[in-house]
Amino acid sequence: MALANANYDFALLLFAAAAVSDGLDGFLAKRFGWTSDLGKILDPVADKLLLISVFVMLTSLALVPWWLTVTAVTRDLMIILGAIALRIWVGPLRGRPSVTSKINTLLQLAYLLGVITNAAGYGPPQGFLTTLAVVVLITTLLSGVNYLMDFVRAARGAAPKTQ
Predict the structure, then answer these.
(1) What is the dihedral of CA 128, 145, 85, 38, to 10 degrees?
(2) What is the pTM of this model?
(3) Using one digit for the tens of pLDDT, what is the confidence trace for 132-148?
(4) What is the mean pLDDT of residues 120-124?
């Protein structure tokens, strides 16, 4: 709502808080072993919902190029649908995000944070954001291909689950 109402200062505060709290949550979960099966599902879904909703909203405001949003959303939907299909076909998933995926998520967060910061009037310059958008595009594509290859390998290596 803050973005839709062009309240970019508040949107910046909310998005930065979400990004920092997600990073802190991940660090604490790993550091102290504070994990659960439900958390292993909800955390990445929440991350994807945050990124997808902000990408779509910023694109609707003409602040993010449509081609980047389509790429990012398509990758995330492919990951979600692939994980569901493998869960049904193979059983419980034991995969972990790749380094490429973690870098991509970090770059997506940085890019969106930069776009909101720019919209709020604090910079960074548009040329930097355009360059970062291209880098995000490349890492999104690489990460998506990586996930797709992992899904194909997992599907090939498993017999169908019997009921």
Answers:
(1) -50
(2) 0.88
(3) 999 999 999 999 999 99
(4) 93
Residues 6 or more apart in contact with residue 129 via CB below 8 angstroms? 111, 114, 115, 118
Residue for token pair 């958008």 = 133
> Number of folded domains in the chain?
1
Among all chains, which residue has been given the structure tokens 């990758």?
A: 75
Cα dihedral 161, 148, 23, 11, rounded to 10, equals -110
Indicate the length of the chain as a whole number.
163
Q: Is residue 2 situated within a structural domain? A: no
Cα–Cα distances (Å) from 63 to 57, 68, 122, in that order, read: 9, 11, 15
**Dist. CA 144–CA 27, nearest whole Å:** 24
Q: Which DSSP letter does residue 160 get?
A: P
Residue 83 lies in a domain: yes
Phi, psi of 13 (to 5 degrees): -60, -45
- The residue segments making up the domain with residue 35 are 8-156
**pLDDT the model gives residue 158:** 63
CA atoms within 13 A on the CB side of 152: 6
